[in-house]
């Protein structure tokens, strides 16, 4: 947040009221919530107690499946280093699996078709198996669906991804996580096991105001799916990474963006999307990204609103965590309404880019108009001109000098300037669609050519068509 921007007391009251309502109505032993902006915690609120004392932003809770999002970051780091490809069959990195044809990307996106849970006793409540023992139990019938056909959430799939990380790095999954994510982000209170100041996990009786202690076992090989303990302050730092507002050198902006691009749809849960280790939700103010988590005695939620550069974290120590994810979403809604993000101040470009400038202005794909504007950061923003139906988007120049679409229909497609003999740009080729400076410019290389009589009057006075 800019130095002159702060949370108004009235906003803080709304945030605390929403937190208090969920803790009370869901009967949660304790609840800690926080809101971040610009990579720093700007509000926090607590209700209930941990061992008789009020918890705080540094009180560790078990975060369950938020662990998966961190595991996904590690896998994408391997991909960015060229050690792993998302299209690699998992057999290439973890041989001997009965589903070795499933790809790394399918495992990340829960599109591998694997069963949801490990072929063990209820893995969240018992001591976990080591990888070798878990792998020995895997069978071909652990595959429930064809690859890439449907979203099916799989804790087992993320255990496999954790083993991929361990084998590729030559160290344990958690050692890699600590070295590559926790340390660079300053997440000093995030741990593999509960520390002495961690919250105890409880189950709340459904028909009485009574509680029951829950176990907190080491998940073993299943740890990459849900093992970690963390705090509101630490997860606020992680939210900053997901918003690309914390510079820890952990993951490139392009890979962070790729994580949040939904590849599958969880139709059973209101058609929410899932990208690479993270859920996507369509909200009134845009897309919200994040992940919930649960383990015996704990429920957690971490969600970010990219358009508002705002994150929300909610941690509680109850198996039946009530509206934990809903509370995180509500905190984002309150911030959007009462503390809208101001955004960066516009400044002119530092120096002209004549080559890119030659591409700006109106272009036409047939009769449909497209306007290209050059930003101070060097991107080309494409917008449809009034009364036309041209696809909008953003293009960024590659290292080889060509332009690649970043979003929408043209994502991944190339924009290539077409030049005449004198080197002047006379057309744009965007994924084979040719755009010219005027509609159907007869002097430009329009595929199929342009009718030799040009634009004509329609009606009885028009001449017979030329064939």
Automatic annotation (TrEMBL):
Domain DUF7586 intervals: 353-437
Stretches assigned to the Beta-lactamase-related domain: 23-324
Pfam families for the chain: Beta-lactamase (PF00144), DUF7586 (PF24491)
Originating organism: Kineosporia corallincola
Protein name (Swiss-Prot/TrEMBL): Beta-lactamase family protein
Highest taxon in the source lineage: Bacteria
InterPro entries, sorted: AmpC-like (IPR050491), Beta-lactam-related (IPR001466), Beta-lactam/transpept-like (IPR012338), DUF7586 (IPR056008)
């Amino acid at each position: 947040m800019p130095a002159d921007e702060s949370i108004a007391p009235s906003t803080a009251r709304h945030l605390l009221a929403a937190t208090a309502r969920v803790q009370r109505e869901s009967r949660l032993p304790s609840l800690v919530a926080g809101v971040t902006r610009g990579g720093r915690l700007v509000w926090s609120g607590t209700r209930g107690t941990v061992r008789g004392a009020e918890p705080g932003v540094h009180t560790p809770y078990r975060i369950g499946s938020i662990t998966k999002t961190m595991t996904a970051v590690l896998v994408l780091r391997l991909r960015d280093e060229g050690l792993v490809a998302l299209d690699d069959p998992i057999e290439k990195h973890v041989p001997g699996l009965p589903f070795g044809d499933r790809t790394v990307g399918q495992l990340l996106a829960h599109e591998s078709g694997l069963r949801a849970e490990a072929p063990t006793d209820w893995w969240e409540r018992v001591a976990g198996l080591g990888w070798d023992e878990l792998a020995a139990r895997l069978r071909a019938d652990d595959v429930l669906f064809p690859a890439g056909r449907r979203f099916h959430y799989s804790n087992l799939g993320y255990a496999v991804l954790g083993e991929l990380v361990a084998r590729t790095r030559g160290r344990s999954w958690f050692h890699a996580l600590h070295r590559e994510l926790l340390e660079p982000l300053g997440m000093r209170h995030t741990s593999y096991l509960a520390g002495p100041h961690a919250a105890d996990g409880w189950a709340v009786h459904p028909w009485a105001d009574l509680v029951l202690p829950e176990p907190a076992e080491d998940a073993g090989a299943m740890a990459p799916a849900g093992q970690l303990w963390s705090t509101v302050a630490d997860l606020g730092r992680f939210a900053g990474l997901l918003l690309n507002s914390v510079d820890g050198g952990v993951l490139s902006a392009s890979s962070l963006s790729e994580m949040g691009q939904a590849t599958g749809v969880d139709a059973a849960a209101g058609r929410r999307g899932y990208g690479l280790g993270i859920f996507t939700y369509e909200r009134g103010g845009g897309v919200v990204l994040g992940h919930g988590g649960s383990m015996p005695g704990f429920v957690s939620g971490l969600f970010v609103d990219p358009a508002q550069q705002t994150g929300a974290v909610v941690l509680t120590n109850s198996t039946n965590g009530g509206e934990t994810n809903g509370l995180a979403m509500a905190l984002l809604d309150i911030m959007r309404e009462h503390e809208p993000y101001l955004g960066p101040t516009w400044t002119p470009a530092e120096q002209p880019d004549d080559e890119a400038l030659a591409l700006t202005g109106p272009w036409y794909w047939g009769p449909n108009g497209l306007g290209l504007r050059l930003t101070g950061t060097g991107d080309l923003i494409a917008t449809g001109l009034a009364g036309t139906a041209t696809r909008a988007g953003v293009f960024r120049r590659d290292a080889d000098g060509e332009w690649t679409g970043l979003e929408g229909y043209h994502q991944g497609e190339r924009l290539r300037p077409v030049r005449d003999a004198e080197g002047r740009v006379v057309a744009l080729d965007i994924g084979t669609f040719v755009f010219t400076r005027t509609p159907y410019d007869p002097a430009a290389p329009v595929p199929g050519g342009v009718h030799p009589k040009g634009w004509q009057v329609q009606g009885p006075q028009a001449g017979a068509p030329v064939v």
